[in-house]
Design goal:
Blueprint lengths: L10 E4 L7 H4 L5 E5 L4 H4 L2 H9 L7 E5 L8 H13 L4 E6 L1 H13 L11 H11 L8 E6 L11 E6 L4 E6 L7 E4 L9 H19 L7 H23 L4 H14 L13 H13 L3 H15 L5 H10 L10 H18 L16 H10 L13 H13 L1
Parallel strand pairs: 1-8, 2-3, 2-4, 4-5, 5-8
Antiparallel strand pairs: 6-7
Helix pairs in contact: 4-5, 7-8, 7-9, 7-11, 8-9, 10-11, 10-14, 11-13, 11-15, 12-13, 14-15
Length: about 400
Amino acid sequence: MNNFQYYNPVRIVFGEGQIKELANLVPTNARVLITYGGGSAKRSGTLDEVKNALNDGDNSRVVFEFGGIEPNPEFTTLMKAADMVNENDIDFILAVGGGSVIDGSKFVALTAHLKEADGTVSRDQAWAALTSYAQDIDSAIDLGAVLTIPATGSEMNSGGVINYSERQAKLPFGNPLAYPKFSILDPVKTLTLPERQVMNGVADAFVHVMEQYLTYPVDAKVQDAFSESLLKILISEGKAVKANPDDLEVRKNIMWTATMALNGLIGTGVPQDWTTHMIGHELTSLYGIDHARTLTIILPSLMRELKDTKKDKLLQYARHVWHINADDQDDDTVIESAIVCTENFFKELGLPIKFTDADLDDTAIDPIVAQLKAHGMTALGEHQSNDLEVSRRILQRAARS
């Protein structure tokens, strides 16, 4: 196991009806900006529940709202939210939604102080922060979250991903100041989600685990066992929620598993990959494919292309997650069986596993590779050896599957 430091200051408030705890979690004299997405928070009543909790009791909170943060949060939209922070002297941001709303709110919290002379947020400085130095920002607006879509783990980590359509860019950022002060996880809020979002969330969490697990062994028994348990839970509960979407106990387990998949714990002391995500981001940016669905398209092809460098962990994955008996089979057969099991799981959830499932063909490959080059994604993976040619071969496999 490699040396590591682990730090996570996020208070998790989990369970049915816990939005009421906002009265105790948000400072009583705060000027609060509630951020949310396309309107489901309003339609479901969650936004009213949040506002009622903030107005509960003897307090002097002043509450503002900013809606319309996209499923892939847009840089230009977030800059408008940052301007609103400055115009109204906001000192607390409360993100109500899924990972995109929380990611976007983190970026607003980090960049709102990057001002021009007229008081508006400097778009140039914010873009520079996204592309190069977000980790160096030394002040941020306090942030809390009310999670409604389990998927990204953003509710318990310090990073995010922002889309900038005008530049055809979808890029990650991170800064310890972006950890939420708290996150409320009420599984009841997931019961009204469309099936597509639920399945996307299961897939996103699954690939988050794989990015931190499917590399090479470093004798990290705790991280490996925890990762394998999370994967098995997502497999069983993903199938269960598709068969019985009203089962609240299943929703609870999916919600907590998605949080644990990317709160930093299973990634401590182990090598990490993230090639699937970096390629997937370009698919979303160029072709508008749901983030999770880009991951299920890329992951099986990556596993086949990199089976030699990932051989030991692929065999471990086959044995411990899919319970494939390797005694009477050669290694390549075992690995292929594990990959097919992964594909079948994705297909069972209604998720794509190849280009044609997303109405793409091999003409998409050159633009994706060009975007990877433009964004500096030229040395990916746990060995930093996945260059553009490796990415191209992964994409070619996905195109001809």
